[in-house]
Amino acid sequence: MRPLRPCSSCCCLLLFFSLGIQGAPEVPSAAPEQVHLSYPGEPGSMTVTWTTWVPTRSEVQFGMQPLGPLPLRAQGTVSTFVDGGILRRKFYIHRVTLRRLLPGVQYVYRCGSAQGWSRRFRFRALKNGPHWSPRLAVFGDLGADNPKALPRLRRDTQQDMYDAVLHVGDFAYNMDQNNARVGDRFMRLIEPVAASLPYMTCPGNHEERYNFSNYKARFSMPGNTEGLWYSWDLGPAHIISFSTEVYFFLHYGRHLVERQFHWLERDLQEANRNRVARPWIITMGHRPMYCSNADLDDCTWHESKVRKGLHGKFYGLEDLFYKYGECPGGTPQPQVHPHLSWIQGPDPACSVSGVDLQLWAHEHSYERLWPIYDYQVFNGSQEMPYTNPRGPVHIITGSAGCEERLTPFTLFPRPWSALRVKEYGYTRLYILNGTHVHIQQVSDDQDGKIVDDIWVVRPLLGRMMYL
Known about the structure:
EC number: 3.1.3.2
Number of helices: 7
GO molecular function, one term: acid phosphatase activity
Oligomer: single chain
Pfam family, one: Pur_ac_phosph_N
Radius of gyration: 23 Å
CATH class of the largest domain: Alpha Beta
CATH topology of the largest domain: Purple Acid Phosphatase, chain A, domain 2
Keywords: Glycoprotein, Hydrolase, Signal
């Protein structure tokens, strides 16, 4: 048998199969793809973001008629993104902000350039001011593989059930994988939802690679922090998105922890001053302060980093989120009711809270907590724990579906855990007015059955205008 000798054709075959493993190389295209919307924080506006594989002009054509010409035009910018993977793949991110939109009106649009246009999409412009009732889909930890909740979310979107989406970290699993092709696939998968609704995000641990570069490049959030932290107003709510990841990936800069903390403090101060107009303060961050899952994640530790800060004492968020709106005279002292198994609120006359609702993900399950501060439960009453609660309500909603499957719970729930659901699904959040918020958990495992359904009712003081 003759020995095999290397030849150029063999090398070509090896290269071909190597590329095949990574995915076939793309033919550069000017056709827009991965189209998605976001709200830039300016009333009457909407930002359209998309990707092309060659540099082109960035234009959106839009109008109010479903058929026929689109008479309105808006131009924007294009930026080059080079992925940090070994192939250094390059693509082009386009951003165009539409302005002077009529509140609540449905628009039809397409994006692109003379070199290629997307298909037509529809969206409804957000209403202005605090006097309306936003409807939100909320979830985290949605992957390109096993995206269980996505088909139902698409149907909900087609039925005009939501005004916006909150994706609470962890996308694609992971956007940088396979030289960012997994990110491309994920952005194509969510397009039927994200091209019709503002898709608002915060970073999770799975976005960390190359200093969160895929996350920063692909999404267009308000503010000037590349989507790491920002806030926006929606109806009677002020929504704050922030990065829990600055506490864990310190090699990208410890200064980010301090910068974000001081920004949060200023934003909360301003939101509290504006509480007559927008009574609800809602936060979204990826890693929870508390959880009762059977793993070793940060939220299972008593002194979690997100809750207590670096080294258990620097820049902790629980005290900060509780502080703004505290009762006159300082932090309330809990009262142990003689006939109740939990700790009741301090003073019925103290009707102002800090952050009202805290949305989390990371754990691939759904968990609702009793109103809580520093491991003490501050229910409103035995019969109505979420009416006039004396602490913030925590919702962990990370079961939208990804390749890592669901996360189990500990055998016995913690005293502060109100409900635990180990099923794929997502959360619906309905901000009815300045006093009432409706929270539901949809189970995809049970064909859309509502497996949790609560109302959070805050005091009337300072909110009478919403009745």
